[in-house]
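Q: I have 128 residues here and want to know how they pack in 3D. Can you give me a structure?
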Amino acid sequence: MARPDGATRRERGSIDSLPSGAVRVRVYAGLDVITKRRHYLVEVVPAGPDAERLAQEARDRFLREIDERSHPRTNATVGFMVAAHITAARLERTTRETYDGYARKHIYPIIRPWRSRTAGHCTAPPGR
């Protein structure tokens, strides 16, 4: 539908001032491919004389990533995706228990807190 004469398009994303003086940048990035909830790219720029300029640059970077489809598609951690893969894979009981043990002892302690940048390229396990 065409816009009425003189109407401009609304800006994407928001820049909010926080009580600490810092500035928060939020841009909607679509639905999370795993949780099916709204997914936002968020960055907090520390307080300072250049905070507004840096926030605008962050907003522009987010918009560019979204337009190029190079943004993360989920907030899921790598550990969550490893667990989902082990759960969804067709494995014998003993193999699954072995993989769970390996992941619990060696993988999760190292990668659980990391966010995935390529999660949009995977799909949620069946039934989720």
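Q: Anything worth noting?
A: The first strand starts at residue 14 and ends at 17. Residues 104 and 120 are 24 Å apart (CA to CA).
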